[in-house]
TrEMBL record:
GO terms for cellular component: extracellular region. Pfam families: peroxidase (PF00141). Its EC number is 1.11.1.7. Its cofactor is Ca(2+); heme b. Ca(2+) 2 binds at residues 201, 249, 252, 257. Heme b binds at residue 200. The active site is at residue 72. This is Peroxidase. The record marks 68 as: Transition state stabilizer. Removal of H(2)O(2), oxidation of toxic reductants, biosynthesis and degradation of lignin, suberization, auxin catabolism, response to environmental stresses such as wounding, pathogen attack and oxidative stress. These functions might be dependent on each isozyme/isoform in each plant tissue. Disulfide bonds join 41-121, 74-79, 127-325, 207-232.
């Protein structure tokens, strides 16, 4: 009997602790909102959209590049615009880290958006938010889903080469279990990972990223491999051939749709990591679902994009609103 009150008070303590953590996690996510700029800069969304629109009209691939910029920003210490920072004398930033070097693009578009936004609302809109909005707009302009993007992120004052090189961004030769654990480390589920990978329905990759796959993998369509080998010779490391590009979705490379998953079912994923999602493992069934049901894909993709955009934002008095996206104030 004497134990009973002690038991119940520790149970009450557990409930309180659980509530406390619930509040903590909820409040950090709730700091981003759809209407953060409603009073401070209502024109931001039109400004971003018009610059993204003309950039895509000039070069459709840039939409893919802007989407990838958001992904690589969020996976390295949260969505804080750190990927945009040029190296300085006090830090070496993310731009030349292996996942990014000679590969990430779109910085000029972000600069153009930033200067347009600064004209109307100086010092108000963060670079991290601009990247998130530009990614959303790119997807919509290329025929994909549209959603209300959450904003209110602030910008980092620094960036880290070593954090960006540490493997938090999974490499293209990843196994399925590495892909799953890399996304789980960011609070993203297996379903989020498979849905977000559908981003490879647009954009291009360099020969260096898929060479091993087209010469060494066995779970690849033979004719598909042959045709990719023409523009990506086996031995050329260090030569310009490394930077030859191929489209990630050979069917509709500038249209945001679910054909990425149809390609996987036909063993025509370009990256080794792409084909890992459909290789007899636990994610096969999701790939089948998305390949036959574009609505389910779009809806899961949007859910996962919002979750990815919520990774560790700087809010409140943390970080700053940069004046120029390439350098801290
Ligand atoms: C699942 C793990 C992922 C791996 C291993 C991966 C890997 C890669 C690689 C190697 C490239 C080509 C880079 C190059 O050769 O220059 C690429 C391109 C791209 N990735 Fe991913 N990626 C992953 C997930 C994502 C996610 C979550 C997104 C966005 C939500 C994304 C969006 C893109 C886009 C749009 C491109 C094309 C970029 C362009 O054309 O400029 N990827 N990815
Ligand atoms: C980035 O790419 C350049 C140009 O190819 C190369 O010279 C440099 O060594 C690369 N940097 C890193 C850190 O890999
Ligand atoms: C393929 O595998 C062989 C043997 O493991 C390796 O030597 C080679 O570098 C790999 N990549 C290519 C592109 O052949």
């Amino acid at each position: 009997m004497a134990l009973f009150p002690r038991f119940s008070s520790s149970a009450a303590m557990n409930v309180m602790l659980a509530l406390f953590f619930l509040l903590l996690t909820r409040s950090s996510a709730a700091q981003l909102s759809e209407n953060f700029y409603s009073n401070k800069c209502p024109k931001v969304f039109n400004a971003v959209k018009s610059v993204v629109h003309s950039a895509i009209a000039k070069e459709p691939r840039i939409g893919a590049s802007l989407l990838r910029l958001h992904f690589h920003d969020c996976f390295v210490n949260g969505c804080d615009g750190s990927i945009l920072l040029d190296d300085t004398s006090s830090f070496r930033g993310e731009k030349t880290a292996p996942p990014n070097n000679n590969s990430v693009r779109g910085f000029e578009v972000i600069d153009a958006i930033k200067s347009k936004v600064e004209e109307t609302c100086p010092g108000v809109v963060s670079c991290a938010d601009i990247v998130a909005i530009a990614a959303r707009d790119s997807i919509a302009i290329l025929g994909g889903p549209y959603w209300n993007v959450k904003v209110g992120r602030r910008d980092s004052k620094t960036a880290s080469f070593s954090d960006a090189s540490s493997g938090v961004i999974p490499p293209p030769f990843s196994t399925l279990s590495n892909l799953i654990s890399r996304f789980q480390a960011q609070g993203l589920s297996v379903k989020d990972m498979v849905a977000l990978s559908g981003a490879h329905t647009i954009g291009k990759a360099r020969c260096a990223s898929y060479r091993d796959r087209i010469y060494n993998d066995t779970n690849i369509d033979k004719l598909f491999a042959k045709s990719r080998q023409r523009n990506c010779p086996r031995k050329s490391s260090g030569t310009p051939k490394d930077n030859n590009v191929a489209v990630l979705d050979f069917k509709t490379p500038t249209h945001f749709d679910n054909s990425y998953y149809k390609n996987l079912i036909n063993k025509k994923g370009l990256l080794h990591s792409d084909q890992q999602l459909f290789n007899g493992g636990s994610t096969d069934s999701l790939v089948r679902t998305y390949s036959s049901n574009e609505k389910t894909f779009n809806s899961d993709f949007v859910t996962a994009m919002i979750k990815m955009g919520n990774i560790k934002p700087l809010t409140g008095s943390n970080g700053q609103i940069r004046k120029h996206c390439r350098r801290a104030n």
